[in-house]
């Protein structure tokens, strides 16, 4: 599996959901002022993470863990910090610490599953996704299905990957990541008409990036629509000239 494939899974940290999902389910062995301090610093840390203020985020998350080393929200936040630093062993340690405190926490399960899949530990990753999906209180099961689908794709099981991605889209028809993964999967499976349809759904949301433009070029070329393919290639060249996708486009054009 390429590093790029791993990153597209591990990047789904769902930090915007954590404030509403983790603190309320965590077992709390500390009490009183220490409990309050851990909660305040953890929520501040997650807030800074969402704003991209990583130093402030890490400072507050560490303070939260000083007050309560097992605090679920702070451990998930610190895992996200370590993933960003590509220190995956440390990230895994914090996800597992969160799950020791709250073994049914779906956010920790989903994020740890994504990390393990990026490291090609597919079996445990899928076990964690399945647990999150079965949790009736987890209101973002679409994320777990999407991660499961990408993980199955990276493991070489395209059929199950598609099943999981379609389930994600049943739950959230506008989910951009799942739409992009379906566009990629259908193109790889020689179904460019379906690829076009998924890209059109992304375009209707205003989602256009180097990945979608390269897929657009590939799908339209496969469909014999040279005008549309050239238009996608031109936008890719203009807006993303230094991207990996632009380098791939040049290679494809050289090979004819």
TrEMBL record:
Leader sequence residues: none
PANTHER family, alphabetized: PROTEIN O-MANNOSYL-TRANSFERASE TMTC4, PTHR44227
Name of this chain's protein: Pilus assembly protein PilW
Pfam families in the cross-refs: TPR_16, TPR_19
Gene Ontology BP annotations: endoplasmic reticulum unfolded protein response; protein O-linked glycosylation via mannose
Organism expressing this protein natively: Thioalkalivibrio versutus
MF-aspect GO terms: mannosyltransferase activity
Entry-linked InterPro entries: O-mannosyl-transferase_TMTC, Pilus_4_PilW, TPR-like_helical_dom_sf, TPR_rpt
């Amino acid at each position: 599996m390429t590093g790029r494939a791993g990153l597209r899974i591990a990047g789904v940290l769902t930090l915007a959901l954590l404030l509403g999902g983790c603190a309320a389910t965590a077992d709390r062995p500390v009490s009183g002022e220490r409990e309050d301090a851990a909660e305040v610093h953890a929520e501040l840390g997650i807030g800074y993470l969402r704003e991209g203020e990583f130093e402030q985020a890490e400072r507050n998350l560490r303070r939260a863990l000083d007050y309560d080393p097992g605090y679920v929200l702070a451990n998930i936040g610190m895992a996200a910090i370590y993933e960003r630093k590509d220190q995956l062993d440390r990230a895994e340690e914090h996800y597992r610490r969160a799950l020791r405190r709250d073994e049914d926490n779906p956010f920790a399960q989903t994020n740890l599953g994504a990390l393990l899949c990026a490291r090609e530990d597919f079996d445990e990753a899928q076990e964690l996704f399945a647990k999150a999906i079965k949790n009736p209180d987890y209101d973002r099961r679409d994320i777990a299905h999407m991660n499961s689908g990408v993980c199955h794709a990276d493991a070489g099981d395209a059929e199950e990957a598609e099943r999981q991605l379609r389930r994600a889209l049943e739950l959230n028809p506008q989910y951009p990541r799942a739409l992009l993964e379906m566009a990629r999967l259908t193109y790889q499976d020689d179904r460019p008409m379906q690829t076009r349809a998924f890209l059109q759904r992304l375009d209707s949301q205003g989602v256009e990036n180097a990945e979608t433009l390269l897929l657009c070029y590939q799908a339209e070329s496969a469909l014999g629509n040279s005008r549309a393919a050239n238009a996608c290639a031109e936008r890719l060249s203009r807006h993303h000239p230094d991207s990996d996708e632009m380098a791939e486009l040049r290679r494809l054009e050289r090979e004819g």
